[in-house]
Amino acid sequence: MLRQCGAHLSTIIWDYRGFLKEHVICDSASDTVIQLAQTHKPKPDPNGLVFGTVFTDHMLTIGWILEEGWQKPHIQPFGNLSIHPGCSALHYSVQLFEGMKAYRGPDSKVCLFRPKINMKRMLKSAHRACLPSFDGAELLECIRKLVEVDQDWVPHSDSASLYIRPTFLGTEPTLGVKKPSKALLFVILSPVGSFFSTGAKPVSLLADSKYIRAWRGGTGDCKMGGNYGASIYAQNEAVDYGCQQVLWLYGDDQQITEVGTMNLFLYWINEKEEEELATPPLDGIILPGVTRQSILELARKWGEFKVSERYLTMADLRQALEENRVREMFGSGTACVISPVGRILYQGEVSLISTSGFPPLASRLLKELTDIQYGRTPSDWSYIV
């Protein structure tokens, strides 16, 4: 069964001087093809979901060829991809992805949370990876239609959601290290529950400057698969030490950057005896998280304490812990929303931050964010499907 929907997408055409020119091809929203699955998989119990292991009935695929531009978007039955063994995504990590969610509200309406920010970040990652540009608003419309087709997969639960994974690959069949002349953008959906096996319990961190997540001039501020694959070794070492995540440090002064795959926040009494919520600045090695931005905007709107984007070092944190000035520490991200930090293992010493459950500020932020995400609080951050 075929029907029409979709979006016209834009492409990058390289002229003879190597400069970029944006060209919107003629395919419009009505040119996107939807092929519905003939059979449907059973829906899982939302209380037993393991992150990223169950997938819905349909997926979105959009091909790109340098000489022709973007091809027609297709919403089709979920299935394996066919790519050449020599493509640049497999050999040189010419690849990127995004992470976003759809939530079901008490009125059964389905909403995405601030997806325009994801589209903006995805465009930035595409530029850094030398993959073609696209119209973020039109891609978002294609994603909306995909979620609409699989809306029955959005859990009827206030502790589960539908994870959305847009992915962009260089697919040119060559071993040459260059900008790809062929690419594939696809989107898959996965119903998810809690990201961490610990649930609401605080996570433990291994802080070790031996491994570096990102560096200035690199791709730490882009959402590329290579950033995550390269972190697995350090993550496994953290587990060997009885920790769940890595507290990533950077530079000779051991700046605190991120925690696992999350942005990091420190709620403390700072050196000037001010009550402060601080997070590392976006200087090229920090991923500009959507949840991070939302937390900063909420806290600044409250106006109850200082909110800063500033450098923090392990020396700052250790001194604050010794002087009992640390109130809370937590990570933030799309997958987990907010995850409190319980303890840190650093140079053989364990520092306790939170012993159980969600501390007050993390709880307040989590409630405000999830109330918006699940439609309990009206907000222009919600994008209705």
Automatic annotation (TrEMBL):
NCBIfam families xref list: ilvE_II, PRK13357.1
EC number: 2.6.1.42
Gene: LOC107587341
Protein name: Branched-chain-amino-acid aminotransferase
Modified residues (N6-(pyridoxal phosphate)lysine): 223
Taxonomy of the source species: Eukaryota, Metazoa, Chordata, Craniata, Vertebrata
GO biological-process terms attached to the record: L-leucine biosynthetic process; L-valine biosynthetic process; lipid metabolic process
Amino-acid biosynthesis is among the record's keywords: yes
Protein location: Cytoplasm
Keyword set, alphabetical order: Amino-acid biosynthesis, Aminotransferase, Branched-chain amino acid biosynthesis, Cytoplasm, Lipid metabolism, Pyridoxal phosphate, Transferase
GO cellular component: mitochondrion
Annotated catalysed reactions: L-leucine + 2-oxoglutarate = 4-methyl-2-oxopentanoate + L-glutamate; L-valine + 2-oxoglutarate = 3-methyl-2-oxobutanoate + L-glutamate; L-isoleucine + 2-oxoglutarate = (S)-3-methyl-2-oxopentanoate + L-glutamate
Top EC class, one word: transferase
